[in-house]
Amino acid sequence: MAVISLPALIQATAPAHNALNSDLPLWANWSFDPQFLIPVAIAAWFYVHGLRRWDTRSREHPWWRTALYFIGLALLVIAIESPIDRLAEHYLAFHMLQHELLMTLAVPVILLGAPTTPSLRGMPRWLRLGVIRPLARRQGVRVAYGWLTHPVVAIGAMTVVLLSWHITPGWYDASITNALVHDVQHLSLAGAAILFWWNVIDPRPRRSRLAYIPRVLYVFVTGVPRQFLGAMLTFADRPTYEVYREASGPLSLSPADDQQLGGLIMWVLGGMMYLLIMGIIFGVWAHKSEQAQRASEAVAERARAAARVQNEA
Description:
Elements: H1 6-9, H2 34-53, H3 63-81, H4 83-87, H5 92-112, H6 116-122, H7 125-137, H8 139-148, H9 151-167, H10 171-177, H11 179-198, H12 212-235, H13 242-245, H14 255-312
Helix pairs in contact: 2-3, 2-6, 3-5, 5-11, 5-14, 9-11, 9-12, 10-11, 12-14
């Protein structure tokens, strides 16, 4: 069966990345895309407004969660609007860096901010009660949520999305030359990352289906395709993507060196991040196990003390 070429289906309508402005220093080449910044601003407003309206809280929401949410939004803006995005048109390494910022930093940090309850409370009443609540009560939506957030589905989604964009002929090239394809790529990567992190970070008020030790294995298995792709790019004997073979930019970086650096970012930097994540999960498990052990010992000690008092009486 012939592989469908994405560029053959979608004609290029606009470049995927804004061009570098040579009249400005490289660090000043920021983009200001309303179609991206307005939704980010709305998400920030919903969160802040929701916290203000959340008078009677059913659970603790410490200040550091709010801080992490806005740090995550800032990382998202840096990934999409900073000079990294403009350099990604010329260098694979910066495109890999952009994806790592999006998938490995921005998404999990936003989720650590526990945005579900504040964001829902911050929405307009007509949206929250007239749209979100009826949808959430539908059986089909509940079944779809349960299926999408299943760990096996999350692993499959991350694997399919990564391999599809990097291995399917023409897809990665199209993500550089076509704005629509580029947006689809980023949305699919972000969506896969959300499903993945949903099972690593307890998405309050929900909890992950996985206990802490299985989460370590879950992270390891999900990271294998990334390691494979990173190694493939690092050790390739020639540039893999046509769009970067003739690309020229302001940095003294050959196409071969650029691809090797991009592969190392995914392989080594991404791998180190996953190892760090597994270590953090293990540390949280050890801490909670110690807390549970102490609580159990305290209960047992109180029971023994009560028994002694009763015997003395």
